[in-house]
Specification:
243 residues; alpha/beta; Rossmann fold; 7-stranded mixed beta sheet; two-stranded antiparallel ribbon; 9 helices; 45% helix
């Protein structure tokens, strides 16, 4: 990181949380990036400050976030603020097609899927996605819409908060039920944090099945499906324990 001087004032470069830093770590030097839902534009500022990117689009749907981002960009970057273009837009609407990397983070998985379904079109950009909820539904959307999950990393913040960062690119990928709940790249990592995350999914799935068994509204076919997924997760974890 670097600092720059504005008169007698030293402006300190932006510091990212582990979650945002993981997003930045997956962006190649020289990429043209669109950050959807940029809020304070922390990620775009970091990318420019650290000379990772010279062209970044900081996008948000509301006037408030765009105004805040603009103020923060000018404060932090000074003469380099021209490298960030602020865009008020709904999802990917109006985002230039030459952006080769699209970041959508801090939203629900279903909203991210909706943004992609409405705006990705014939783009070929790499996707860096960080869903806050409904990760399984986002993975399924990607598989069903000809995206290939090339990597998935789990980031832990605070005591019990886990975040999934998914890297996806255009390209059809065959998948099984287990891949919806824990992608193959995630399962192949086999590090402690990834296994802890999958164990958390296992516990959630177990509780879900218990609830379904006591509900009169549960359809038998739905219960069979969820039980099958639960067994697949259980088998994976048992195999890992035997390694």
């Amino acid at each position: 990181m670097k600092n720059w001087h504005k008169g007698a004032i030293i402006v300190i470069s932006v510091k990212l949380s582990p979650r945002l830093k993981t997003l930045a770590d997956n962006i190649k030097i020289g990429s043209v990036v669109a950050d959807i839902g940029t809020d304070h534009a922390l990620l775009p500022i970091f990318l420019v400050e650290n000379e990772i990117c010279n062209e970044v689009y900081a996008c948000d749907i509301g006037d408030g976030p765009i105004d805040r981002a603009g103020t923060y960009v000018r404060k932090k970057l000074g003469p380099d603020c021209s490298k960030i273009t602020l865009m008020k837009c709904d999802g990917l609407d109006g985002v230039p097609n030459h952006c080769d990397t699209i970041v959508i983070a801090g939203m629900g998985g279903e909203l991210i899927a909706d943004i992609l379904s409405r705006g990705y079109g014939d783009r070929t950009a790499k996707l860096i996605l960080q869903p806050m909820t409904s990760i399984d539904k986002l993975r399924k959307y990607l598989y069903d819409n000809d995206f290939h999950i090339v990597d998935e990393t789990i980031v832990k913040e605070m005591e019990h908060r886990y975040y999934s960062v998914i890297i996806a690119e255009p390209g059809k990928q065959e998948y099984e039920n287990l891949d919806i709940y824990a992608s193959k790249p995630l399962r192949e990592k086999r590090d402690k944090i990834s296994l802890n995350f999958i164990e958390k999914i296992y516990r959630t799935q177990r509780a879900k099945i218990r609830g379904m068994r006591t509900s009169r509204l549960t359809k038998e076919e739905d219960l069979r499906y969820e039980t099958t997924v639960f067994k697949e997760i259980e088998n994976y974890l048992e195999e890992e324990k035997r390694r």
